[in-house]
Amino acid sequence: MSNIESYEKAKNDFSWDIARDVLNWKDGELLNIGAMCSDRICDRGDADKTALIWEGFGDRKEKYTFNDLRIYSNGFAQFLKAQGIEPGDRVCIFMDKIPSLYFSFLGILKLGAIAQPLFSAFGDESLEVRLASANTKAILTTRKHVRKVRKIKDKLPELKNIIVVEGDPAKLKEGEVFFDVESAPKIEEFDVFKSDSESPSVLHYTSGTTGQPKGALHVHSSVWGQALTTSWVLDLKDDDIYWCTADPGWVTGTSYGIIGPWVLGTTQCVLDSGFTSSRWYQFIQDNKISVWYSAPTAIRALMKDGNELVGKFDLSTLRHLASVGEPLNAEAVIWSGEVFNGLQFHDTFWQTETGAMMITNFPGMEIRPGSMGMPFPGISASVLDLESHEPVTEPGKVGLIAFRPGWPSMFRSYWKQPDIYRSKFVGATEDAMPDELRMNPELWYVSGDRASIDKDGYYWFVGRDDDVINTGGHLVGPFEIESALVEHEAIAEAAAVGKPDEVNMEVVKAFVTLKPGYEPSDDLELDIMNFIRKRLSPLAMPQEIEYMDRLPKTRSGKIVRRYLKAIEWGEDVGDISSLSDE
Ligand code: WT7
Question: Which CATH number describes the domain made up of 382-465?
Answer without folding.
Answer: 2.30.38.10
